[in-house]
Design goal:
- The structure is a single chain.
- The chain is 71% helix and 0% strand.
- The chain has 15 helices and no strands.
- The longest helix is centred in the last third of the chain and has 17 residues.
- The termini are far apart.
- It has two domains: 117 residues, Tetratricopeptide repeat domain (Serine Threonine Protein Phosphatase 5, Tetratricopeptide repeat, Alpha Horseshoe); 94 residues, Alpha Horseshoe (Serine Threonine Protein Phosphatase 5, Tetratricopeptide repeat).
- Helix 2 packs across helix 3.
Length: 263
Amino acid sequence: MASDLNKKVVELCRQGKHEELQEILKEAAAANPQTSEDYVKRGMALSFLGRREEAMADFEKAIELDPRNAEAHMRRGGMLLILKRPKEALAECDEAIRLAPDYQDAYQTKGNVFMAMDRYEEAEVYYGRLAERFPNSRDFWELNRGAALSLLERYQEALSVFDTIGIPPKVDPCPSYSYYLSRAGVLACLERFDQALDAIAEGMKVTKEEGGCIPCFVGNCWRVPYFEPLRNPPYRERLGKIIGPKQRTSHESTARSRGDHVD
C-alpha cells in the first residue's frame, strides 16, 4: 500500500538511513502499476526521487482509475504545491477531505498550502481547530500552530502553545527534535539565548535516545536563521559543545583550499 511506503520513508528519514531509503524508492519507482493504489505508490517514489512530471502523471492516472481515491487527490495536491500552483493544490486537498473527512494527511497538506501562500493567520486558526478535532494528534497540530504564530512574529503566543505540548512530544510524522528546534527558535527570537541552547541540548539528547538522524538535527542548528545569534560569540562555544563542530560542505572545503574566506 502507498501508506506503507510513506511510513517507511518517514522512518528511514528519521533514522538518517539515506542509502536504504534510495534503494526502496528506486525499487518502487521501477514497479509496473496496475491499480489506482499502485499508481499512487509509484508516483510517491518518483516524487521523492525528484521526478516530478512522471509523479504527476501517475497521480493523475490514479485519479482517472479511481476518482474517489483520496490519497491520489492529496498527493496530486502536494505535487501542485511543489510546482507553485497553490490554488489548484488547495482544491485537490479539499477534494481529498471531502472524500475522506478523517484523512489527516490531507489536512496536513492543506495546512502546508496555507503556509506556502503566507496565509499564516488563517493557518494558525486552522491548526487550532484540527488540534481539537483530532486529539490523538494534538501535539502535531499544535506544533504547526506554533510555527504559524512564529511566522506572524507572535513569539510569546507561540511559546505558550509549545508549553502545552507533552514531553516527550507526539509530533509524528515529524521527528521529535522538530519540537525542540521550533521551541529554541522562538526562545532565540525572544532573546532568551541560554534557554534556546537548553532546548537544543534536550533535542540532541532525544535524537540520540530515539536513534534519530543526528546529522539532520545538527544541520538545522547550523542552518536555521533564527539561530544566527547562537552561532556567534558568546554563545557559539556552547552550541558547538552541544552539537559538535560545523561540518564543511564540499564547496566550503574547495574555497578553503584556495585560501578564500570561509566563516
